[in-house]
């Protein structure tokens, strides 16, 4: 668990990067606004995590999954974000699978080279 309350906040640099990417060119954001957005985002993440944790407990499980987060978003009446989040989760899974496959191929190639050298 977090030792201090500040440990629960999202990093300001990450939030700033996300906000700057969302803003049109030529629009600046004050430090005060960035700090406020970072705190609001942190509270929101904790709120969704709490709702997802309740789903996990009600289903008598220990691991929180992406599906639990999607259900939590619907439960806390953020339904309009569920579909975009499903798409993002699916993209993440595809990228992770591709990386795993690529890593497995490299490992197999390395083993093949080692076996050939041993012969």
Automatic annotation (TrEMBL):
It is found in: Nucleus. Keywords: Nucleus. Pfam families: CBFD_NFYB_HMF. GO terms for cellular component: CHRAC; epsilon DNA polymerase complex. Residues 110-119 have a biased composition (Acidic residues). One of its GO terms (biological process) is leading strand elongation. InterPro entries: CBFA_NFYB_domain, DNA_Pol-Epsilon_Subunit, Histone-fold. Residues 99-119 are annotated as: Disordered. GO terms for molecular function: chromatin DNA binding; protein heterodimerization activity. This is DNA polymerase epsilon subunit 3. The lineage of its organism: Eukaryota, Metazoa, Ecdysozoa, Arthropoda, Hexapoda.
């Amino acid at each position: 668990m977090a030792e201090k309350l500040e440990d629960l906040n999202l990093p300001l640099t990450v939030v700033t990067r996300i906000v700057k990417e969302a803003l049109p060119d030529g629009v600046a954001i004050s430090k005060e606004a960035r700090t406020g957005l970072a705190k609001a985002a942190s509270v929101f993440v904790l709120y969704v995590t709490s709702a997802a944790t309740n789903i996990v407990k009600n289903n008598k499980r220990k691991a929180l999954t992406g599906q639990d987060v999607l259900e939590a978003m619907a439960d806390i009446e953020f339904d309009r974000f569920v579909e975009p989040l499903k798409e993002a989760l699916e993209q993440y899974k595809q990228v992770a699978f591709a990386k795993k496959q690529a890593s497995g191929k490299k490992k197999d190639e390395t083993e093949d080279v080692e076996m050939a050298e041993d012969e």
